[in-house]
Write a structure and sequence with these properties.
161 residues; Glutaredoxin; two-stranded antiparallel ribbon; 24% helix; globular
Amino acid sequence: MMDKTIYDFNVIDIDGNPVKLDSYKDKVLLIVNTASKCGFTKQYGPLEELYKRYKDKGLVVLGFPCNQFANQEPGDMNEIKNFCSLIYNVDFPMFAKVEVNGKNTHPLYAFLKKKARGFLGLSAIKWNFTKFLVDKNGNVVKRFAPATDPLSITKDIEKLL
């Protein structure tokens, strides 16, 4: 496990297609567990703004819907996709719903949590919109709390681009 990078994982996109994360090699990634009915849902706006501002320089935001926190993502893939598109005009890649904690934690999230612990060194994800910043070599660089405004991490992103 220690030699793994983010590129060793496969995920399913919001349309049900398999995606190898190695297709994002040489990109800076901001990986976020999202939800449509959360107090932080408005972060879709600044996340999309970051994506638009930096995608030509190599940033990709990856959104992973999760329904593990107070049932704040109850919809199916189509409902989530429509919500993101219609309400927030999300253009960054969105993926199938995942679990980020517990026995069914998606392997990608098990890896992210191991590489970047949260508050007080805990690995569990506390809430929706926890953000993981990954460098161009697939290394997890930093973890940001759900309440962290995506635009406040612009300098961290720019350092990696």
